[in-house]
Amino acid sequence: MESKLKLSRIHRIVEALLFSAKEPLTETQVKLCLGEDNTEFDKIIQDIEGFYKEIESPLTIRKIAQGYKMAIRKEYKKWVARLYQKRGQVHLTKSALETLAIIAYKQPVTRVEIDAIRGVNSDGPMKTLLEKGLIEIRGRKNVPGRPMLYGTTKKFLEYFGLNSLDDLPDIKEIQELNQQSLFSTNENTPPENTEKIFNTQTSSENSQ
Amino acid sequence: MGYSVKLDVFEGPLDLLLYFIKRDEINIYDIPISRITDEYLEYLQLMKDMNLQIAGEFILMAALLIRIKLQMLLAPDGEDGEEEIEIEDPRTELVQMLEEYQKYKKAGEYLKLLEEENLKYHPVNVEKPAVDIDVDLFLSDISLYDLAVLFKNFIQKTPKSKLYEIEAVRFTIDQRIQQLRSFFIRRKKVKFNELELDKKNRLEIIVTFLAILEMVKNGELGIHQERNFDDIALEYKNGVEIETVANT
Which helix (H) or strand (E) holds B191? Predict the structure, then answer.
C-alpha cells in the first residue's frame, strides 16, 4: 500500500468534521461545509482510514446509515468502557428485539400483524421502541379501522451499525445459519472497505 | 424431569412451544400433539402454582392445542394413504405459526448480535456538551431580560393549582373574646395595633376584630378612632359587667 502518512488539507478538514459530527457524516454535509462539490468523499474517507491503520490509531471510520461515523476501535472498548462505567449500557430486551426484527423485515407493518406473529401483545416493546426512536409511524393502512403502520428509522441503522436496510441478511438466510456461523459470516463479508482494513489491523496487532 | 428453566424467559406461548420442540428434538412437521399438549398444560399449572399471572395468550394456545388434539383423535385412522391425503393435518396452522415466529425470533437474535457488535465501537464526538443537551436550550443569544420575560410568561401560562390549602380554624370569636378579657385584666387601655397579632394570618386579625366589635356591642369595651385609618384605641370598661354578659 502506498504511504498515506501525509494527508492533504482537505483530508484534515473532513477529519475535523468526522470528529465533530454527532450523526453519521454525509457527503451532502461535507460538500456544504467545504463549499465545493467534492466528489471524492469516499476516497478521502478511505485515505483517512488507511492513515489511521498505518499509524495504528485507535480511531476508525465506519459506514453507517448512509454516512460515516468516527469511532474508537473495538479493541479499546475495554478501557473506554471503564471511563463510562457509571452509565452502563442499556441493551434492548428480547421482546423488543423480536418486535424490532418483525418491523425491520416486514415494514410497513401494523401492530396487529406484529402481535399475530409473536403470539403475544406487543404494546410494551412497541412503546419502548418508539421512545428510543428506533421505529416510527409511517401512516395508516387502508383497511377497516385504518391501523397505524410502523417502520424503522435512521436511528435504527445507527443503533445496529448498519449502512442501510439492505445490509440485513435475507430472513431465510438467518434460518439456515446457526448463530455462531451467522456472526462470523457477517464479519467475513463486511459491507464496506473500512471493515476490511480493520480486519487486517486486528491480525497485525495480534502478531505484535 | 423437573423444570429448571426460568419462567420469564418465554416471550409467549409460541416461544414456550419452540422450547419444548427444541429440548425434546421434535420434528416441527410431526409434532406429537398429545405429548406437547400435556407438557404445555403442565407448564401452565406450574405457572399457576407459582401464583404467576397467566396471560390470555397462553390460555388461547392451550385451547388451540386441545382442539388440534381432538381433531386428530376424531380423524379416521389412515389405514391406507388415500384418506389421509384428503384431510388436512389439523397441526398445519400451528406449524405455520411456529415457523413464522421462529423466523423472527432468530432475526431478533441476529439483531442482538449486531447490537453487541456495534456497542463495541465507542462513537467519537467532540461537540460541546451544551449543544449535546438540547438545541432549544442553547442560550448564547439570550439576555437576562429575555429570561425574565420568558419566566413571566411561563408563570402566567402555568395553570393555577386546583388544590387549595384550608387552614383549620384555630380559634372562634368566643375563644378570642375570652382571650381578650384576660388580656384586658392586665391592661385596661390598648391600641389595636398593640395587640400582638400574627400579621400574616388574616383570619386571626378578622376574628380579633369581630371579637372586639362583639365586646363593644355588649358594652364591655369602648373604642375610639381619631381619624380614618388611624389606629383604634380600645378601653376596657369593668370586670363586673363581664360576668353578666358572659352569663346571658
Answer: strand B189-191
User: How far apart, in whole angstroms, are the C-alpha atoms of residue A71 and residue A74?
Assistant: 9
Task: Answer yes or no: do A98 and B108 touch at CB < 8 A.
Answer: yes
Contact indicator for A154, A142 with CB cutoff of 8 Å: no
For A32-58, the pLDDT digits (tens) are: 888 877 668 889 999 999 999 999 999
For B50-99, write each residue's pLDDT tens digit: 767 777 888 999 999 999 999 888 876 655 555 555 667 888 889 999 99
Question: What type of residue sits at position A153?
Answer: T
Cell numbers of B230, please?
Answer: 388611624
Per-residue pLDDT at B75? 73
The secondary element (H helix, E strand) that includes residue A15 is: helix A9-20
Residue of chain A minimizing CA distance to B13: A119
Q: What's A177's DSSP letter?
A: S
**How far is CA B223 from each of CA A50, A121, B180, B188, B245, rounded to the nearest angstrom?**
100, 79, 14, 12, 18
Q: Would the CB atoms of B55 and A117 count as touching at under 8 Å?
A: no
